[in-house]
Amino acid sequence: MICISVTPTSRTLAPADLLNASRKCDLIELCLDHFIAEPNVGELIRMVDKPMLVSCRREQDGGKWKGSESQRMQLLREAIVAGPAYVELDLEMAEKIPRFGQTKRVVAYTNLNRPLSKIDEIFAQCCKAKADVVKFTWLTEDLDGAWPLLAAVTKPREVPIVGIGFGRSGVTFSLLGRKYGSPWIYAALERGMEAFANQATVWQLHEDYRCEEINSKTRFVGIIGQGDSENIAARVFNVAFSSMGKPIRCLPLLPGDLSKFPKMLEKMKINGLIVDPGYDGNLTTLAATRDEFSTASDRIDVLKEGTGGWTGICTTFAAIEKAGEALTGSAEWASRGSVTVIGNSPRARGAAIFFSQKGAAVSIAGPSDNSAASMARAIGVRHVGWNAVHDLRTDTLVLADFGMQCGLAKGQVNPMMIRERMTVVDLTVGLRGSLFADEAHARGARYLDPTSVFAVQLNLQFRQLTGRDLPEDAFARGLAE
Hints:
The chain is of the alpha/beta class. The protein has helices spanning 14-22, 41-46, 69-81, 91-94, 119-128, 143-154, 170-179, 202-208, 228-243, 261-267, 292-297, 316-328, 346-358, 369-379, 435-442, 450-466, 474-480; strands at residues 2-6, 27-31, 52-55, 86-90, 104-111, 133-139, 161-166, 185-188, 219-224, 248-253, 272-275, 289-290, 302-306, 309-313, 338-342, 361-365, 382-383, 396-399, 423-426, 446-448. β4 (86-90), α4 and β5 (104-111) form a beta-alpha-beta unit.
């Protein structure tokens, strides 16, 4: 089930929020702690035909309640008398409020500072407080934080467990909870109406991750990273898997301790991963073997498990070549003329090796002359001093370091080096806008948009994992839906 958390502040507008939520969920959580003035819970319960869970959380538990504990207890007692399907009671209060009527008790334990290790002990205390459902809430900034909470949900117990992960891996926990039989998962009605920061919206759960299609038989492909590109990749891949009739869906992942990550993947039965273009972590330690360009650039964007362990693959430069062909109208564009790579990162090294192998005359320059010169010597290409690079004439300019800035300050790339009819390859951003794009268009250069590269790369990643190209309508359907 999907439980939408409704957080109205106005008694006048609350009915509209409840009505909108009732159309998109199976259970509604009415958060009383957000109201400015005390609501009539009985009236609100009768306004919709969906079961309701009533809560009133303290600030220390992630809520907005600013009154006294005696006032909060009285409000919850009155709410129970109104007859909601469920009432949420924190563990301390549950021992003071007896069971009443048909309302089921969700006994909650929250810790927003760190994950717990003594889950079984807390669970036993919640059961002793006459819980019908036990709820755990804690910080899940990465998979390490979500892991104990996931273990609690997946273990067979006499009383079911629901959970909320605060932080960037909250969605991960929700989708895994769906697979492993949690009675419900939580969602916000829309952006701006979250019960807590980073709470997934019901739209995101349905449209990006197709949570209604996830069950115990679902297998996951992991997507490492966060942001627009991760969401788009999930939507496109999920459309593709659905059209193929495969019980496979995408799971966002944010690794913590990489030494623990392979074991977690094994437990979740995940044997394929793709990596968001904007993810800045180094995953090379996960791979037992790597292809040439993942080794050259220290950049892995596909990981797949085989008999000998995980294999790391870099599709970035193949995607650049294919997208550049569409931009320039030439299949040989990467092998013609001169190419100047700007950067000091391993990604700059990978770009220089790629274009050099294609047959282009490659030069490297970077804000650190020593690093750029050392890199140039190691791979056998020309080094250009940073003070001289702005006067260099080149056919293709590769801005290789993620986060590199356009400007005139020290360490920034002077846009004056961009000239008419030049091809500019921009690797400095994910799918965000780039000042280099504005400069390239203003100066009459051809700009290889990261979005175009990303679209090609998604197909290459899908092919690596499945052996097939994305269905032709996967992008259109994924983005339209």
